[in-house]
What we know:
Largest sheet: 8 strands, antiparallel, barrel
CATH class of the domain at 104-255: Mainly Beta
Structural class: mainly beta
Low-confidence stretches: 1-17, 21-69
Order of helices and strands: EEEEEEEEEEEE
CATH topology of the domain at 104-255: Lipocalin
Mean pLDDT: 75
Radius of gyration: 18 Å
Number of helices: 0
Strand order of the largest sheet: 3-4-5-8-9-10-11-12
Shape: globular
Amino acid sequence: MPLTGHGLRPTPLRRRAGRPQLKRDPLRPQLKRDPLGSAPAIHMRFVTFAVAILSSPCITPALNCQDTSITPCGDPTPNEPAWWEIKWQRQPDGSATGTVSKPPAVPRNLHLDRWAGRYRLTLITTAGTMRRDTLSAIIMLWVPKAPSGRKPSLIGATDSAFSFPYGAALAHPTWQRDPARPGISLLYDRAKGELTLVFGNGDLLTTDSGVFFDVFAIDSVSMRGRWVDGGLGVLVDSAGHSLGHPQGYFCLWRLNE
């Protein structure tokens, strides 16, 4: 499947927001890509993930919420830690185009205003970082009063303590509550059955920015899937080998107010 941001349509001239560029020479000319070689690499300072330990709001069984201390977050692709991986194919003109795996379709009849509310996010890294760590945060999703940008079904924000300490490619903070540039946007392509949360590029107007959470499964109390950083930069190990784009899997559990 050509990489177009899973429902984020390209403009007539250039794509603004989406997954990492699938171009022979991405938008930054100093980062050259071998058409059939490894992803462009830039050195980043290795920063260890901080694990946020949050107390559970599920105090009694009467509460209709999920206690993440006893509810595991399962990897939907356990045998593919680098599930999001560009597969390159040479074109007759000498350029190369890339494809990535496609997430399973979600129902095409969702009324996403019903999913507005407060959630606990658990995020696990599986590739593209020096450590395999777990992050936790509280996020809020709500129906936008005046849809902006690409008209997300829901917008939201994380709590102020949340961050991607590996150096995520964010256009603005994930805790930002500006209606025009929210910290989180939830995009729904009903025709394709694609559901994506975008962190840190809420207006979808900044190229090569944001962290993309593809929803593989959704029910009345949770969303689960895979995430990938949308920037150009990747980490390299001490031998100079690319670790690929930071990525992993996630779970969102609805919390009662």
